[in-house]
Specification:
Blueprint: H1 8-35, H2 39-44, H3 50-99, H4 104-130, H5 135-163, H6 171-178, H7 180-190, H8 198-203, H9 207-218, H10 225-242, H11 249-252, H12 260-276, H13 279-283, H14 286-294, H15 298-315, H16 323-326, H17 328-352, H18 355-373, H19 376-387, H20 393-421, H21 425-444, H22 453-462, E1 476-479, E2 485-487, H23 489-498
Helix pairs in contact: 1-4, 1-5, 1-6, 1-7, 3-4, 3-6, 3-7, 3-20, 4-20, 5-6, 5-15, 5-19, 9-10, 12-19, 12-20, 14-15, 15-18, 17-18, 17-21
Length: about 500
């Protein structure tokens, strides 16, 4: 690591680079939908039919799945930062190939390559950030990243709208795809100045380096009591896990004292909820959804999709102010219930299919994106990294991200045909799935808000797989003026009266 970033500057630097990575992720998800309806794109690729549209869009998610598996195999060796470097360089190669594509097969291969790099990053960026921030602000930082995912969508849409003015030149579709390289350059330029995850360094036995990183992130000296306390807490946790030996692939799929398979299944759940909510059935193809469902012009569809994306971005900041107080569970359940209601209304309006109902369809699409961003979006990207034990965190999160991308592929692959063939029933399916997330979350998902990564180890050691009793946020609070993490005395007293620190 180079540079003199310390304390707030160092934490801000980590947050900024993670933010750019998430902005790139959101942009990448929306950019194909912004250009696939352009005449220049359709002419370049021989007017692809609905099936080929699904392949070109969905193959990116297969690449992301492969990238998640690659992260599963390599991230413990490369480190959090090193893995992000490799993932970003792979995306650079894929972007160059996409921008220069002249045939369907080249576009399919290049989108796969780009997906591999992004899949690696979507595993490692959340882990790097969660291991670099303390429990009281970890959730808030991930809210910011979720908002940046949301910002990527309108950015790609407006980029497509602007470049449409270059029609019929192929520049109209090539430029929006090439523009994602700007984010990759920013990531590659910023990473050398930022620290590696201190938890990963401890795991590798590099205690002196980890101590230095704890000091850098806190702004304290290496012999400050708070620095040593943080280091010793992590060292103790890692040493306890290492008594069981090195983590293996098989260990991830067995229960054991750390309840690994339970945590993998629970961690994968919110990722899958993200996709099976139907969000990317809309987000990937928002302009052509308006064109084909509501008979709008390409230009009007892009404008409405862009405005929706801006509102989506603005609303997605709101959880920053209450996610640690309200908790992950309530936000996830409330968001899923509201998403279900919106999909019911969208289905009804699609069935009625009058001029008035078409605009109500648009209105409830706006509302759907808003309520999705208030719960499912932020929780899905933070939950797995908050519940996995350190030894298996990379592998467990990689499996969760892999489930996300496989689900994404299925959703995106079937959507072009489903828009035409299922009509309003497509949205009924999404409504039923969203409704099912409410009881699933209530029954099985422990609350992670205001609990450190080590606190969650204790939760899983005291709970068997099944109905959770950990339904409320923990009692970790913000730092005092001396920099020491404190617990809320009232929360501790309440927990003791209840007989468990995790209820």
């Amino acid at each position: 690591m180079r540079g003199n970033l310390r304390g707030r500057s160092a934490r801000g630097g980590v947050a900024a680079i993670c933010g750019v990575a998430f902005l790139l992720f959101g942009y990448d998800q929306g950019v194909l939908g912004a250009v696939i309806g352009l005449d220049s794109f359709r002419k370049e690729f021989n007017d692809p039919d609905r099936h080929l549209e699904g392949v070109i869009a969905g193959i990116y998610d297969i690449g992301c799945f492969l990238g998640a598996l690659l992260a599963f195999m390599t991230a413990d060796r490369l480190g959090r930062k090193g893995s992000v470097v490799w993932g970003t360089w792979i995306m650079v190669v894929g972007t160059i190939l996409q921008t220069s594509a002249t045939e369907n097969i080249q576009m399919i291969i290049s989108r796969t390559v780009t997906g591999v790099g992004n899949g690696m990053n979507t595993v490692n960026v959340p882990i790097w950030q969660s291991e670099s921030f303390k429990s009281h602000n970890r959730g808030a930082m991930l809210i910011i990243q979720s908002a940046l995912i949301a910002l990527g969508h309108p950015l790609s849409t407006f980029m497509g709208l602007a470049s449409r003015q270059a029609e019929p030149s192929s520049f109209g579709w090539r430029w929006p795809i090439a523009f994602q390289g700007v984010f990759m350059v920013l990531i590659l330029l910023g990473l050398p100045f930022l620290p590696e995850s201190p938890r990963w360094l401890v795991h590798k036995g590099r205690i002196e380096e980890a101590t230095s990183v704890f000091a850098i992130l806190s702004g304290n000296s290496v012999d400050d009591p708070q620095t040593l306390l943080e280091r010793d807490e992590i060292v103790a946790s890692v040493e306890e896990e290492k008594k069981l030996g090195e983590a293996t692939w098989g260990e991830v799929f067995t229960e054991g004292p750390n309840r690994n398979i339970s945590r993998v299944l629970l961690g994968a759940g919110p990722y899958m909820m993200n996709q099976w909510s139907g969000i990317n059935s809309l987000a990937y193809f928002l302009p052509i959804t308006f064109e084909r469902n509501l008979n709008m012009s390409t230009e009007l569809s892009l404008i409405i999709a862009g405005v929706l994306g801006v509102q989506y971005f603005c609303v997605s900041w709101l959880p920053y102010f209450f996610i640690e107080k309200v908790g992950r569970r309530k936000m996830l359940m409330g968001s899923a219930a509201a998403c279900s209601f919106c999909m019911v209304m969208i289905a009804i309006m699609r069935k009625v299919n009058t001029v008035a109902s078409q605009w109500v369809f648009v209105a409830f699409t706006f509302v759907f994106f808003d309520v999705f961003s208030l719960g499912i979006l932020p929780v899905s990207w933070m939950y797995a990294s908050e519940i996995m034990p350190l030894r298996t965190r990379n592998k467990g999160v990689a499996l969760g991200v892999g489930s996300h991308w496989l689900s994404n592929f299925v959703v995106v692959f079937v959507t072009p045909d489903a828009i035409d063939n299922l009509e309003h029933w497509l949205y009924v399916i999404w409504a039923v799935l969203n409704a099912s997330f409410v009881p699933i979350t209530w029954l099985w998902y422990p609350e992670t808000a205001r609990r450190s990564l080590e606190d969650m180890d204790e939760v899983f050691r005291h709970e068997r797989f099944g109905l959770t009793k950990t339904r409320s946020p923990g009692n970790r609070t913000k730092e005092g003026g001396d920099g020491v993490m404190r617990r809320d005395p009232e929360a501790v007293l309440f927990a003791n009266e209840k007989g468990s620190p995790h209820s």
